[in-house]
C-alpha cells in the first residue's frame, strides 16, 4: 500500500496558511520534507508532530523571525538552516530554467539545499520582502518606461540592498488556435466581443504584461471578453486555447511548442532576472550563483531546452 504524504499546498490548506508560510517553516527546519521529483512532500506524522509542538508552545506559525525559538537546526546567528546544518534556500518562479538552476545548486554547492516555490513574479518579490524567499525570478514590465523588473523591484524592496542578475531572455506573446481563425494580431484585437481571452492570475509576470499593455493601448478591462477567467501557468493557458475554451492567451514561445493545436504570435522579448538580497548570509551565495549561471554546463542545459536567449545570462543588471 502506498504511503500517504502531503504536498506543500495540501499542508497549507490543512493549517489554513499560505504556501509561503509552509516554505518558511521548512527553511527553519521546523517541518521535515523530502522530494519526489520536483515536489516537496511532508509525511502525516511529521505534520502531526509539528502541530503537537505548536499546541505545547514550542513553536508557532508566524512570519516573524523572532517568534521561532532557537533549536538544534539554528546556528544561533539568525541564519536559517535545515537538518544536518544544511541551509535551505527558496527559489521562486515558474520557468523550467529555475528547476535546472536548483539542480545545479544542489549538485555543486555543499551545504545548500534548494527548495522550489512556484509563485508569480510579484508574489515572489513580496515573499522576499517578508523574508520567505532567497532567490526570486521576475519578468515584470512597466508600460510607460518599457523597462523590465527594476521599477517593481525598487518599489517593493525599499531600503534593502540587493543584486539583480540576468537569467535569460525569452519571447512572450499570444497563444492562438492553429491557423489563427480569429486573425488575432495585436492588443487592439482584444476589444472585439467575438474574441475571448484567458487571463493569468494576479501577480504573475504575464498578468502584468496584459494589464500594462491594455493600459498602454487605452483598453478597458470591461471591453475584454474573458478578462475574469484565470489560469495559473503558461501550460494551462495554452491548453485552454487549444481546447477552444478561449481564443487567445498570453505566454511564452516555449510553451506553445509543448501544446498541440496552438500557434504563437510573438509580441515582446522579455528579460527574466534573478533577485538576491545582499545580506551577510548571502555574501558567499551571490558569487556562487553567478558562477553557476556563467558556467558552460548550466548554459548547455538551458540551450538544450531551446527558445532562450542566453547572451546576457550571468550578467549583473543592477545592484544597490
From TrEMBL:
The record's annotation in SUPFAM superfamilies points to:
Periplasmic binding protein-like II, Putative DNA-binding domain
User: A single Pfam family, by name?
Assistant: HTH_17
Name the species this protein comes from.
Answer: Anaerobacillus alkalidiazotrophicus
Q: Name one GO molecular function term.
A: DNA binding
Domain Helix-turn-helix: start-end pairs = 6-53
| Residue ranges of domain PBP in the record | 102-292
Protein name according to UniProt = Excisionase
Top-level lineage group: Bacteria
The record ties this protein, via InterPro entries, to: DNA-bd_dom_put_sf, HTH_17, PBP_domain, SinI_DNA-bd
Amino acid at each position: 500500500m502506498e504511503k500517504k504524504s502531503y504536498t506543500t499546498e495540501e499542508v497549507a490548506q490543512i493549517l489554513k496558511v499560505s504556501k509561503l508560510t509552509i516554505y518558511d517553516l521548512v527553511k527553519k527546519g521546523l517541518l521535515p520534507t523530502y522530494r519526489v521529483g520536483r515536489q516537496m512532500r511532508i509525511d502525516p506524522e511529521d505534520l502531526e508532530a509539528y502541530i503537537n509542538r505548536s499546541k505545547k508552545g514550542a513553536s508557532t506559525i508566524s512570519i516573524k523571525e523572532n517568534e521561532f525559538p532557537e533549536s538544534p537546526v539554528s546556528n544561533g546567528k539568525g541564519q536559517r538552516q535545515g537538518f544536518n546544518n544544511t541551509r535551505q534556500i527558496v527559489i521562486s518562479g515558474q520557468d523550467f530554467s529555475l528547476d535546472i538552476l536548483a539542480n545545479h545548486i544542489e549538485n555543486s554547492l555543499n551545504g545548500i539545499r534548494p527548495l522550489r516555490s512556484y509563485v508569480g513574479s510579484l508574489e515572489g518579490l513580496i515573499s522576499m520582502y517578508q523574508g520567505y524567499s532567497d532567490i526570486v525570478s521576475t519578468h515584470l514590465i512597466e508600460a510607460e518606461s518599457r523597462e523590465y523588473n527594476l521599477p517593481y523591484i525598487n518599489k517593493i524592496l525599499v531600503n534593502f540592498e540587493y543584486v539583480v542578475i540576468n537569467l535569460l531572455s525569452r519571447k512572450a506573446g499570444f497563444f492562438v488556435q492553429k491557423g489563427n481563425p480569429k486573425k488575432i494580431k495585436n492588443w487592439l484585437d482584444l476589444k472585439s466581443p467575438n474574441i475571448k481571452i484567458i487571463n493569468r492570475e494576479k501577480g504573475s509576470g504575464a498578468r502584468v504584461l496584459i494589464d500594462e499593455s491594455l493600459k498602454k493601448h487605452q483598453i478597458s478591462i470591461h471591453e475584454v471578453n474573458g478578462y475574469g477567467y484565470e489560469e495559473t501557468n503558461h501550460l494551462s493557458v495554452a491548453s485552454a486555447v487549444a481546447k477552444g475554451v478561449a481564443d487567445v492567451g498570453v505566454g511564452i514561445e516555449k510553451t506553445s511548442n509543448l501544446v498541440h493545436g496552438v500557434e504563437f504570435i510573438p509580441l515582446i522579448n522579455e528579460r527574466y532576472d534573478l533577485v538576491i538580497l545582499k545580506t551577510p548570509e548571502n555574501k558567499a551565495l551571490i558569487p556562487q550563483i553567478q558562477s553557476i549561471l556563467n558556467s558552460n554546463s548550466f548554459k548547455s542545459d538551458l540551450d538544450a531546452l531551446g527558445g532562450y536567449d542566453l547572451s546576457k545570462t550571468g550578467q549583473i543588471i543592477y545592484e544597490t
